[in-house]
# Entry
Amino acid sequence: MDIRAALKNGIAQLREANAPSFTLAAELLLLHVLGRNRTWLYAHPEEVLSDTEAQRFLDLIARRAAGEPTQHLTGKQEFWGLEFEVTPDVLIPRPETEHLIEVVLDRLAVRELRANRPPKSDGAGLQIADIGTGSGCIAITLAKELPQANFVATDISPAALAVAKRNAIRHTVADRIEFSEANLLSPVGAQHAAPHPGKIHSSAPPASRESRVTDHDSRLFDLIASNPPYIGRREAASLAREVRDHEPHAALFGGEEGYELYADLITQSAQHLKPSGILVLELSHNSLEAVQPLLDTSAWTNIGVTNDLAAIPRILAAERV
# Structure
């Protein structure tokens, strides 16, 4: 079987299975098997696959046709021009989350201009938290964009933190990101204890960059960013099977309605941000009406909403008074 025949076969099977973006999926799976790029693929349509390559490709096509995400089959997804390892333990990075990166960088620049300070394009001196880091795509992307900033990346899942740490090592930013097992900003295992104002905690030795949040390490952040679980469980049946059956439910569902986590996240962020500190949150397609009023307190100012390319309110940002 040559490349032309393999690709035609894969596309036909995925089309028959009603797989989304079936042509792209077949291309990506064939590229993954061959270890080549798209330019080479289309420049060598008559190149013959080995029996091993052909069987591996057809096996992956069958798994994709059965509903497994392409990203789980290849083990990677691009975000902000960077390649991230993804596994079933983490949410697959979405293009709309790139708007969160844009808003973070814009907000940091505007804050400096408003204070008549030169922009900190390298992030020097900034302390930034990424809450619910998953694959680490937000913290790692910001670490690449702000090479002098330092980060805390929290997640309730140790398996997700392991993926994020590998991604940080791959992108050479692991020395500036502390990975902490936490429920939002609260210590894992804390019994209904509210976090102390101005503190996020780590029981790990100072030399360690991977920690569990405890009651000993106080700090305030210049910025907190989060793409929290925001799908309602009542929407589960309407999700694509690739999402519903293969991505981690803890990273998908934020409660019955989907927006239940935002109240605690906003309250904790108010306690952990410096004055003029920035909070940037990703929203679901229908949660703005429920979430924005949570910022209508004396703790917050300069509240703004950014739409995604589909004109859906996607990013909510505010500053701590």
